[in-house]
Amino acid sequence: MQYSNKFVYYTICILINCTIAFAQESIAITGKILDQNGYEIPYAAVGVLNKNIGSTSTEDGAFYFRVPYNTLEDTLTVSSLGFSTFSIKVNDFLKQAKKEIILEEKTTALSEVVVNSISYYVKNAFKALRTNTVSKNHQLNILYRRWSVEDNLCRFFIEHSINAIDRGPSSYLVKFSVDDARTSADYRFVKNEQKIHALKYMEFNNPLRKGIPLKDYKWTKTGNSSYDNEDVIIAKGEMGNTEKIWLYIGMDSFKIYKLEMEKKPKIGKKLTATYIYKKNKNDLLYLSYHQREWEGAAPLPENIKKVLKANNKPIRNYIPIGYRHEAYVLDLEENKSNFKVLEGLENKDMTQYKTDYNASFWNTLNIPPHTRFYNKNIAELESMYGVQIENQFKYSNMR
To answer: What residue ranges define each of the domains in the chain, with the CATH number in brackets?
Structure first.
């Protein structure tokens, strides 16, 4: 088929114009956050606050997100526990040859003795939880990752892009939908499944959501910090030898900026989790990042026992299993007219949510830079048969 030179010319012009228009819709903001000694600062809140746009730095201090082109004159703000808040105009940051942000450590004048008791701050933090957080319906766009571990090796990876309607940590999720999913090759032999979506376990395990009997814990002060120019007290709660909680509480606002926990509910099981919160444009907190690990045990399938027996290897009745989780909140939407949750999905294991794999969707998603945690798990997966994760995505999601 022959095309005229004029047709080809107009086609090229259209493509160029479309490319330029797309480029002007958004611009990438990427860089690294360091302290004055050159060490990476993890889980710092970085973004354009007045637009509710931003991300959280990885455990390596790296960050990546996109902003509309019309935000160049807005202010990029970075806040992290223990450091003074840093601000710079978006356009000025983009002009920097080296995309690094150096935060200054903020020393606190708090002594080991606090005027009020630790339980006073904990009690008031829970009492003020609703007023200190985004407690009306809002939408969180969440990148949720789960690695399935068997015999101490990561053997399966599943990743969901989720839109969830939330009311903040003083309540529970209203509903959520899985917009897209992708999985690695499945090297599991136990194939343990969770009864509900891992996102629900994320909220059920959060002491801020389910509430805790404060009087059953022994509270002690373990340190001081700061956040966004507010002094922060670190309170540790212990319930016997089974549960520990660390709360990072603002001394003036009673806001809980970070929560860490460790549980040993049963022999042979262990749960550790971290929840990070950051501020929206109205100075209210919402979830920013979550990491969780669960360790347990499961019966060894009979067919695996037969294989071990045939190869003269020791036969075990149980093997260690576990889940490793990571969740990034990529976007906060408070305008109900912009909510994208189509319908609430029933609770079932993450593998049971079937969506059509869309490679271009994942290529354009604001995925944070890979962390040491991510790379460790993926390296274990790739080492099974030497198959790169991108090829696993390509061939494991074909339907």
So the answer is: 25-103 (2.60.40.1120), 126-396 (no CATH)
